[in-house]
Amino acid sequence: MMAKLLLKNRELLLLAAIAVLVALIALRFPAFVTVANLAGVYNDTSILVILALGQMAVILTRCIDLSMAANLALCGMVAAMLNAAFPGLPIPLIILAAMALGALLGTINGALVWKLDIPPIVVTLGTLTIYRGLIFLLTDGKWINAHEMSDAFKALPRLELAGTPVLSWLSLLMIALMVLVMGRTPLGRAFYAVGGNPHAAVYTGIDVGRTRFFAYCLSGTLAGLSGYLWVSRYAVAYVDIAAGFELDIIAACVIGGISIAGGIGSVPGAVLGALFLGVIKNALPVINISPFAQMAISGTVIIIAVAVNARAERRKGRVILKKAEAV
Amino acid sequence: MADAQISPRNIPDRLEGRGVRLLKSWEALLVVVAAAIFLGNSLASPYFLDPWNLSDATFNFTEKAMIAFAMALVIISGEIDLSVASIIAFASTAMGYAVQLGFDTPALVAIGLGVGLLCGTVNGLLITGLGLPSIVVTIGTMSLFRGLSFIVLGDQAFTGYPESFAWFGQGYVWWVFSFEFALFLLLAVIYGVLLHKTNFGRAVYAIGNNQTAALFSGVRVARVKFTLFLLTGLMAGLASICLTSRLGSTRPSIALGWELEIVTMVVLGGVNILGGSGTIPGVVLAALIMGMVTFGFGLLNVPGIVMSIFIGLLLISVIALPILWQRARRRLAH
């Protein structure tokens, strides 16, 4: 009974997998499972969680956003430059600017997908290199280091409210917002409808292209926010920050059971997928495995996750008219 | 990933003549672009038209193009292989390891090709055997293969390749024609014949257009796809031999990000990313264009990352412009 429930519900399955993983680590290193350390692991994964939420919305509509990490890097760099040029500028304003820029970059992706019907993978492959290249044009390859950033700029993500850093609170806030958007707004339902069956979505009056456009706006905005968080947390900004991170984001979604074919996935899934990667990343140094092994491990995890999810997705034909069949 | 286009309802009674179709083709557009870039480059820099300089320029694209040929077939069949650059790294790491054990050139070549085939087999089994989506599987194996190189090498590098091994990446067949360029031409012919003149090639198109219909008309879909992933693996192994030989060393970050450049090359060559159409001559032209752009910018001291902006813009605009052009024409016709 229990096992059946577990196999049916991919979020529970993933939660169980994370629990087993943490328990295995705890057997050798009990210190890993202290509340403080687990909170630290969550805090460390917060940015990935936020990004995975945006990517989830895009993947649900049968698209993909490969440009998220480049978007993050560009917005983070602009935030850092704003701060370095105008140290007096209030931090919330900088965050808003980063989010607005991220939204704009997402809008470009969305408009190309919506208005020109270019396949999403091609669009974001192109903008990925363009956005990253723009950072170089903007900075000439120079770094912005910790001493050029104001203290308030660097302090915000670390600031503790009720014993938890703002970074964690922000990601929790985004999770709550996304649960509302996905479950309680027409837009959220449209994401599922468009991904589940685009033709049926058209007949129910949903504009498929427009829905995809908004999914890209959402992922862009979240990438912009993450840009500020990344740069202020690590207190450095340069051209190559978060290079290759787009694949980690997609990996988190895939592990979280979000179907790359669209229409299937949930907010808890995306969050758990990100946390799974976060636990692995934080556990490796503890159990004394070289950090170089992380890449191979996450690759293996992606393959296992997609194999497990594909089995769950393989739906059998459904009986629609039970009554008629009974007769 | 996106939906299939609506099929045209107005089928003409007669197709346009061969010549007219050729003039209107994507390849014709690419020839014009290539000619323009060639002309622009020779005007912008006096060093461009030197035969040895041009010969050096070919190294920019030959290794990527080898993989792009196989990738074109994979994409035409409606799949994608993002793990190719990681296969290069893994094969290179295996060869470097073999050097430390004292193996010589023939063994190294066999190991490079063998590892490529092995990686292709892993991809092929996961995709056709388990029926998993290729984009996710190859994102996974992309991490896995490069990750294995990182486990073996960490922040170290393998060097000390035998002198005879250097020929693959640095040797010349005749005058200014390098071994790599000759290999590129040979592979272009082989893949051109394979895709355009054999039953296998027709099957690839059939699968890309309608996999179910292909299956019902007797095409062994799984076997064809498996072969295609073997081919990309093998080509990545071959490219790994050339690249390792040219650089003379192996780091785990070798060929980082190449998968995106290779996909760009294939799409620029007119292959539909959704599958079903594309030609090898188109890919050859796209390879030449990308190589010339990179080299021309290099002569003008433009940094690599600015070139990548240009490549990104090129990728989006070559796809967007025909769409915009068609729309404008339709509007004028009404």
UniProtKB/TrEMBL annotation, chain A:
Q: Does the keyword Chloroplast apply?
A: no
Q: Which portions of this protein are annotated as coiled-coil regions?
A: none
InterPro entries noted in UniProt: ABC_transp_permease
* Alphabetically ordered keywords of this record: Cell membrane, Membrane, Transmembrane, Transmembrane helix
State the GO CC annotations: plasma membrane
The record lists the membrane-crossing segments as: 45-61, 92-114, 121-139, 159-181, 213-231, 260-280, 292-312
| PANTHER family (alphabetical) | ABC TRANSPORTER PERMEASE PROTEIN YPHD-RELATED-RELATED, RIBOSE IMPORT PERMEASE PROTEIN RBSC
The entry's protein name is: Branched-chain amino acid ABC transporter permease
TrEMBL record, chain B:
Per the record, membrane topology reads: Multi-pass membrane protein
* Membrane-spanning residues: 28-49, 69-95, 107-127, 134-152, 172-194, 226-248, 254-275, 282-299, 305-325
Keyword Transferase attributed: no
InterPro entries tied to this protein: ABC_transp_permease (IPR001851)
So which domain of life are we looking at?
Answer: Bacteria
Transport: present as a keyword of the record? Answer: yes
Cellular component aspect of the GO annotation: plasma membrane
**One GO MF term attached to the UniProt entry:** transmembrane transporter activity
What keywords were assigned to this record?
Cell inner membrane, Cell membrane, Membrane, Transmembrane, Transmembrane helix, Transport
Report the subcellular localization.
Cell membrane
PANTHER family with a match to the protein in the record: ABC TRANSPORTER PERMEASE PROTEIN YPHD-RELATED-RELATED, AUTOINDUCER 2 IMPORT SYSTEM PERMEASE PROTEIN LSRD
- Oligomeric form and interacting partners: The complex is composed of two ATP-binding proteins (LsrA), two transmembrane proteins (LsrC and LsrD) and a solute-binding protein (LsrB).
Q: What does this protein do?
A: Part of the ABC transporter complex LsrABCD involved in autoinducer 2 (AI-2) import. Probably responsible for the translocation of the substrate across the membrane.
| Protein name per the record | Autoinducer 2 import system permease protein LsrD
Q: Which organism's genome codes for this protein?
A: Sinorhizobium saheli
